[in-house]
Amino acid sequence: MDEELIGIGAFAARARLSAKALRLYDRLGLLAPARVDETTGYRSYRAGQVERARLVALLRQLDMPLARIAEVVDADDGAVMAERLAAYWADVEARHAARRTLAEYLRGRLSGRSSEMYGKFVVETVDVPGQVLITESRHTLADELPTWIGAALGRLEAGAPECGGVTGAPFVAYHAEVSMESDGPAEACLPVADEAAAREWAERRGRSWETTVRVEPARRLACTRITKAQVAHPQILAAFEAVEQWMAAEGLTAAGPCREVYFADWSAAGPEDPVCDVAFPVAFPEASR
């Protein structure tokens, strides 16, 4: 026989929740009533749903997104539930650590210690020849950026042999701000040897990945070299600002989107190994040309 149904009031008391919360969980798709009276709309539950109701309530107190709550409570096995909760909490702690670092960075700026933060970056100019680039662009927020960069550069590197091979370090150009509120776009770029072959490859690839081919003229870059640990947000913000301060002091202006040039094997690098140049294309005053 079916388990006896319990009215919403009695069920709410057993679950130590309000009827309002139960109606919310129903609306969110997290805990549907066992039965809803077609005439009155009155909800009834099974006693076996009490544990799920309590679990949903506890997970909500962790600020867990609804989709992640559903993944946890829909698992058939307690061990799987525990693993999914552990994975979520690891993400929470990583985000908290990043916010703590950002708070320390902002405290340094607001307290006037900017020169102390920026002084550790050595800025110089380098000349880069003209390059044929295969590129992939995307509007992306900051939390999605690292995953997208790895995937996009991987796709470009896979196509490079059909474009005459790689001729320079890959880089990511930022055509507008990428943050938690602003989504760029960002452009992953890879220098290749053969423009005609690159255009044929891009044509075959279609627009599925927003792929383009462009020729970038010779550039002079103002840049600073950073380690793998410094690539993480917000440490990398200090590197960009250090370059901008140096440019202002030298009377230089930006002549294109800022970029991150990845010259080392990311997977093989340790936290303190140099992996990236933070750079701005620069235009010199007319008098100095």
TrEMBL record:
Superkingdom of origin: Bacteria
Listed SUPFAM superfamilies: Putative DNA-binding domain
Start and end residues of each HTH merR-type domain: 5-75
Keywords: DNA-binding
PROSITE patterns xref list: HTH_MERR_1, HTH_MERR_2
Record flagged with keyword Transferase: no
Name of the protein this chain belongs to: MerR family transcriptional regulator
